[in-house]
Amino acid sequence: MTSNVELQPETGPSTPAAPRTPSTWATLRSLLLRLHFYAGILVAPFLLVAATTGLLYAASFQLEKVVHSHELTVPVPEGQRQVPLARQIAVATAAHPEGTLGAVWTFDEPGRTTRVLLDVPGLAESTRLAVFVDPYTGQVRGALESYGSSGALPVRTWISQLHRHLHLGEPGRVYSEMAAGWLWLVGLGGLVLWLTRRRRAGRRLRRVVAPERGARGLRGTLSWHGSVGLWALIGLLALSATGLTWSKYAGANVDVLQTSFGWSTPSMPSSGGHGDHAAGGHGGGGTQTVGADQVVQAAAGRGLSGPLEVVWPSEPGSSYVVKEMDRLWPQRNDQVAVDPATGQVTAELRFDDFPVAAKLIRWGIDGHMGLLFGLANQILLAVLAVALISVIVWGYRMWWLRRPTRGFGTPYRRGGLRRLPPVVALPLAAVTIAVGVFLPLLGISLLVFLVVDVVLARIAGARAGRSGADRSGAGISG
């Protein structure tokens, strides 16, 4: 939730009545209001870009199916069986001799083409040339660049990189890390502010979870801003957490944390083969006994099914690795290693044996990528993106409605940190420093906000001092 505001700014009393010392909670809330105000105004543009490009990404899966339908699908001939996988691979590698065989994707779904992935010099990092083969005729349907573990084709790759770094390369990743880092802070802060607003007891629950009926203007906008943000918060926090795993600076800290606590995804146990091998195409060098069809059969004998990725041995002495690719239900992500000389399974890695944390990370990343439950996942991503865009727009509208006649809207009063008792201020400072170290861009931007706020306070204090001195001088001289 961004730019959450109260219906009235939290200003001090207008009369010189006996001052009341605010409670610790009131002071904390005042501090949170000020932070939420600045974050909403200054950080919301990053969130708005991330949400808009994220909405495009959620639609990219269906767009990919339409744009690249010729390569992805083929008519299913009645009664015709599929040609051997080794023959399909041979046709693909013969059509593109410049590539080295890296992996093959096979599908049980009727009408899906076989995808042969070739390592071709000159392609971008994490990019391979995907050659699409009709499994019923053995003819090549086309070739496209394929990016990443999800096999994104050009249209989805372009949108994905727009969302990730705005096609600016490494410098562009700063925007997405800023958005992911601030999203949870702004969201949780907004949640606290929303739940602690004063409401009439009889209508408290309904006004928390649903927009206020009949409310107009600032009150109505705040009602929509808070209630929609409340419903979207869990999904947005999940996107923030998983988005940080891809980030440049915080992502490195996440990797260290995963390794330290044993949360990393296990890897296939090492297993040796016998001699050189290059079945079903040129890849690795030499001659081998076992063909691609036998490798798939060996994996099927250990229970692997559905869409499969067969990874070719990268060097002499290594094995084939066959992986399940069913992201719709993550438990079907088992892997086996197959000896290229004997066709025997030499190692297994079962998803059920993953640590709980590794499973949660896998589910979270697949959910962020729109793979977890297919179309349902993509619709949920689109809904969350629209919700975040709406909350941001409502936040800016509230800022506009409560601004002075001209100029920047008045932020909430400063001084919250100075009024906090040490027993609260010291732990809060320690937590803030720890978070800033773990999420460097968040920490740096938060420090910049603090410095700017202090400078503005000094300027305002100096002006007030000069104004008071001028008034005093006028009174004496008068």
Describe the structure in your own words.
The chain has 478 residues and is of the alpha+beta class. It is built from 15 helices and eight strands. An eight-stranded antiparallel β-sheet has the order 4-3-2-1-5-6-7-8. Helix 6 (173-195) packs across helix 8 (217-245). It is elongated and about 90 Å long. The chain starts with 23 loop residues before the first helix and ends with a helix. Mean pLDDT is 84; it is low at 2-15, 272-282 and 473-478.
Concise overview:
The protein is of the alpha+beta class. It is 52% helix and 10% strand.
Query: What sequence of helices (H) and strands (E) makes up the elements?
Result: HHHHEEEEHHHHHHEEEEHHHHH
Mean of residue pLDDT values: 84
- How many helical stretches? 15
* Main beta-sheet annotation: 8 strands, antiparallel
The percentage helix is: 40-55%
Helix-and-strand structural type: alpha+beta
Kindly report the spatial arrangement of strands forming the biggest sheet: 4-3-2-1-5-6-7-8
SS elements, strand count? 8
Shape, please? elongated
For the CA atoms, what is the radius of gyration? Answer: 29 Å
Distance between the termini: 53 Å
User: DSSP strand (E) fraction?
Assistant: 5-15%
Contiguous low-pLDDT stretches (5 residues minimum) are: 2-15, 272-282, 473-478
Summarize the helices and strands and which ones pair or pack.
Elements: H1 24-42, H2 44-67, H3 69-72, H4 85-95, E1 100-106, E2 114-119, E3 127-133, E4 140-147, H5 154-165, H6 173-195, H7 204-209, H8 217-245, H9 250-260, H10 292-301, E5 308-311, E6 320-324, E7 335-338, E8 345-349, H11 356-368, H12 375-401, H13 416-419, H14 422-438, H15 440-477
Antiparallel strand pairs: 1-2, 1-5, 2-3, 3-4, 5-6, 6-7, 7-8
Helix pairs in contact: 1-6, 2-5, 2-6, 2-12, 6-8, 8-11, 8-12, 14-15
